[in-house]
Amino acid sequence: MSVARVTEISATSPDSFEAAIKAGIDRANKTLRNVKGCWIKDQNVMVEDGKLKEFKVNMEITFVLED
């Protein structure tokens, strides 16, 4: 049996939602071990001077706790 934990993070990218998701998962893997999944809770964009500036995702990362 395994026990998992979920933590919420936000990530941004000037390129796309996909790039923001990848950046968030890559960063989570630097700190968390046994990352098993990700749920995208919310997506939005940042606008500056009437122009699209960044793509932002809020996500929940699931990782399995070690014994």
From TrEMBL:
Matching PANTHER family: CALCIUM DODECIN (PTHR39324:SF1)
Protein known as: Dodecin domain-containing protein
InterPro entries: Dodecin, Dodecin-like, Dodecin-like_sf
Matches recorded under Gene3D superfamilies: Flavin-binding protein dodecin
A Pfam entry, by short name: Dodecin
Species annotation: Marinicauda algicola
